[in-house]
Design goal:
There is one protein chain. By secondary structure, the protein is an alpha/beta fold. It is built from 8 helices and 6 strands, in the order βαβαααβααβαββα. Strands 1, 2, 3, 4, 5 and 6 form a 6-stranded parallel β-sheet that branches. Helix 1 packs across helix 8. The N and C termini lie close together (about 10 Å). The structure holds flavin mononucleotide. The site of flavin mononucleotide has 19 residues, from helix 1 and strand 4.
């Protein structure tokens, strides 16, 4: 049973969350995890001006995803930073190249799940995940979130990402915040949860 984690990360927060998602997937016996980045669409000079080039070198070893790889997975967990309350353009462009898969119904019945990151606490994490789900539903995927059995999402003693829609982290206005232990635990839970459901579906 194959779980594909497909993400875009500009400053590393989504990459760190993707690693935690992968840890959770690996806890399910028989689950194979593959980590992939979606292709970059911004020119190098723009990335340099945005201060992303150096950070991105840290995960340049993660292979770039092809759309066909989606079809060979049993579950796909997508990670995207928030851009104006929506997924980032790099992810949108990648998904807009999946029309051929849609025409064949190649993703129908596979598990789909989403995690995110935003600069500010109320900057659109939920809208990003929920609007992403629309694309997964058009593909006929079975949408899975982060159930309240992950109790960490009920915490009010500290600022934390994580909602019934999926794991998330708050990066801070300058990207200075790193994912907290609670946010990483949410990501591990989501990875494990998706893999456990995919395992049942592929029995
Ligand atoms: C063009 C642009 C739009 C953004 N829009 C939002 C937004 O609507 N709300 C928010 O909280 N953060 C916003 N951010 C901040 C990003 O979400 C943040 O940098 C990202 O979550 C960090 O994840 P990463 O390190 O994986 O790239 C925006 C950033 C950029 C560059």
């Amino acid at each position: 049973m194959k779980v594909l984690i497909v993400y875009y990360s500009m400053y590393g927060h989504i990459h760190r969350m993707a690693e935690a998602i992968a840890e959770g997937v690996r806890e399910v016996s028989g689950a194979e995890v593959l980590m992939r980045r979606v292709p970059e669409t911004l020119p190098e000079e723009v990335l340099k001006k945005m201060g992303a080039l150096e950070v991105q070198k840290g995960f340049a070893n993660v292979p770039v995803c092809s759309v066909d790889e989606l079809a060979s997975a049993d579950a796909v967990i997508f990670g995207t930073p928030t851009r104006f309350g929506n997924m980032c353009g790099q992810m949108r462009q990648f998904l807009d190249a999946t029309g051929g898969l849609w025409a064949k119904g190649a993703l129908v019945g596979k598990v789909g799940s989403v995690f995110t990151s935003s600069g500010t606490q109320h900057g659109g994490q939920e809208s990003t995940i929920l609007s992403f789900h629309i694309t997964l539903l058009h593909h006929g995927m079975i949408v899975v979130g982060l159930p309240y059995s992950f109790q960490g999402q009920t915490r009010t003693d500290e600022v934390s990402g994580g909602s019934p829609y999926g794991a998330s982290t708050i990066a801070g206005g300058k990207g200075e915040r790193v994912p907290t232990e609670n946010e990483l635990a949410a990501a591990r839970f989501q990875g494990r949860h998706v893999a456990a459901i995919a395992a049942k579906l592929t029995k």
